């Protein structure tokens, strides 16, 4: 290798580490800015404290209601998104003909590109008032609405990832099943789904992670009350929307500011964990099918 | 014509990881001759000619022992500039691999990377190369068309022309007709015979008739070993080794 | 009663069909609502004028321009980093440890919630580097957000360049960097562009990362410097829905903004998807 080629190689190598640097930077920033509050409040009472009154004197930084808010909205969203998203993926993969596929796959991808602010906006002006009337609620901006909108948002994501997982199941499995006299439905449930199972569960985990990190939608439609939800129709304030809503009013370097970074840290660690699980499963899955990892 | 040695191969051993791909190779390649490498697939013939322009540099986890002397100079010496070597030793590949650019851009690529920008030089050299590659008449009016729109045989002749533009002295052909129809194959074969006047040529082929038609010298490889090397006529009509005889008479491979 | 496999299959297929119909219908209706309501806000002035009468009249010109600046800035930042990372991973066959480290970083960066990027941008660009709340800080933050997508798309495009094309270049005496510049990158360009366009769509719609790093909710003028704060379309929708004193008039403008954003994102993404499809057809 010539000297110029070597110089380029090292320059490129340094630049290629930028993703690593950014990820590390995010971790450092979150820890550095979040730790002061964690140490003054204590990790346990920060995570499991039931009251979030960041501006009271003295302030209280218990994010348990916020975590519950995130969880309830996320789980609700998955109830909507998993059956519809995976069902759509199965339809596209198993039933749709070539022509339909050529249409459906790009359309699903396109729908996945709709910005979350638009979902939030739609949820706020159309869905929330509608649900308020339908269920006779005091406010339509609640966990239920958030779950519904996030669920719809997550459908294209789940559908695309699940479809990818289905498409790598070798054709020979299907042919073997048909040759034994199984029909398409039996083949789908007894052969293809088990083979694609871990790929599909990767889709679900990534979907959860994506939904939990979603900010603008929940900010606009979940009502924003930092209280422990008693029912799914109560307003909630998930972690993401707490950060987004309060950062503007938090004094830089103050306790509130640090507390919001600490929420960011919790959120980051949860999503990081889920992404790692998803990657681990998908690695094993591809290995099982004898593909490159 | 006097037999002049151009390339001398001395005790070449080559490993892919732990696999011993070439074993104790020794041979002489003569100037202005076509030397054919034959043998069943996986016998190391392609691996061998890719050493001569050091394409093996691009593959990691390989080990090489021994020397290949080009005009008396070991091409693996640390002071050899591989770029210079590859300009001197051109290569034509198994599958035509024109760049997804125009015919003209394909041809001038080798000159442009050398820094030649003079339009007149570029035009002259491309025309000469195209004529030598017997492609000029077919493409002279559409030099700006995409090279990918040529037929497979034309693409391969374009690749030969592209190689000639750089004015190499040795040309390596790695199964140049493997993906071509019989008519295109014939054209390429005639071309190779024509080119030997000016160049030293090595051809890898799995087609024994082809080796017999175009080469002066033939080397028979088996499992990484050079089994027999000699005049093509002798190899095909009077092989010394039983394994060569089996192969050329079609008993295995 | 014996279960009839044919009947089960029929019911099952109908259920799957209903799934896809629900998905398309719900998402389609969102687009429909935004279109039908947003179009009433559209006028020439809406695109070019500044907001007037405390956001109840006038246009959203500064927000459109602000979004374009932010998108442009983020792409200018992320594209070189992304393409070079992809080149390094594909062309320089780094050691396994390095490769895995970089890949792991890219995968995990892709999964970081967008609001966390906002926190990072606030702490690093706004505070630490002293860029303040500005187009610059917002662009850099968005750039990091779109980086993983650009890397993956570029990686796919570069790895798809046939090895034989690289060999042809080397065999003609090209150096590695000549081969990359003159053969590999031009061949991979359509794929890289597709990734870039998708990233544009993504960056245009993101709100959380720019909330603390780039935007102001009200501006009477167009952004004039990258060191100043700006309005942006997605954030403007949020502001119109949550701040201000005339919710009904503001809602109309919000619909208009949502429609501009939707058209922008859908147009850009369709272009990218179309380019990719035709690219695939060419290779197949």
Write down how many β-strands of chain A occur, each being a DSSP E stretch of 2 or more residues: 2
CATH superfamily of chain A: MetI-like
**Helix-strand topology string of chain C:** HHEEHHHHHHHHH
> Please, what is the oligomeric state?
heterotrimer
Mind describing the biggest β-sheet of chain A? 2 strands, antiparallel
**Shape of chain C from CA axes?**
globular
Question: How much strand of chain C?
Answer: under 5%
- What overall form of chain A do the CA principal axes indicate? globular
Query: In the CATH classification, which architecture of the largest domain in chain C applies?
Result: Orthogonal Bundle
In CATH, the topology of chain A is named MetI-like fold
The CATH architecture of chain A can be named as Orthogonal Bundle
> Are there runs of chain A of 5+ residues with pLDDT below 50, and where?
none
| CATH fold-level label of the largest domain in chain C | MetI-like fold
Distance between the termini of chain A: 29 Å
Distance between the termini of chain C: 50 Å
Major sheet strand order of chain A: 1-2
What order do the strands of the largest sheet of chain C run in, or round the barrel if closed?
1-2
Residues in helices of chain A, as a percent range: over 70%
Q: Overall pLDDT of chain C, averaged?
A: 90
Structural class of chain A: mainly alpha
Protein architecture, described:
The complex is a heterotrimer of chains A (293), B (253) and C (284). A two-stranded antiparallel ribbon of chain A has the order 1-2. Chain A has helices at residues 3-16, 18-41, 43-48, 64-95, 98-112, 116-135, 143-167, 171-179, 184-213, 216-221, 239-246, 255-288, and strands at 52-53, 60-61. Chain A has one domain (19-288): MetI-like (MetI-like fold, Orthogonal Bundle). By secondary structure, chain A is an all-alpha fold. The model of chain A has no long low-confidence stretch (mean pLDDT 89). Chain B has helices at residues 45-52, 82-88, 103-112, 119-132, 136-139, 152-165, 182-195, 208-214, 232-237, 242-248, and strands at 5-16, 19-30, 34-38, 62-70, 73-74, 89-92, 170-174, 200-204, 217-222, 225-231. In chain B, helix 3 packs across helix 4 and helix 6 (152-165) runs parallel beside helix 7. Chain B is an alpha/beta fold and 253 residues long. Chain B has one domain (5-248): Rossmann fold (3-Layer(aba) Sandwich), CATH 3.40.50.300. In chain B, strand 9 (217-222) and strand 10 form a beta hairpin. Chain B is built from ten helices and ten strands. Chain C is mainly α and 284 residues long. In chain C, helix 3 packs parallel to helix 6, helix 3 (61-91) runs antiparallel to helix 8 and helix 10 runs antiparallel to helix 11 (247-283). At the A-C interface, helix 1, helix 2, helix 4, helix 5 and helix 6 of A face helix 1, helix 3, helix 4, helix 5 and helix 6 of C.
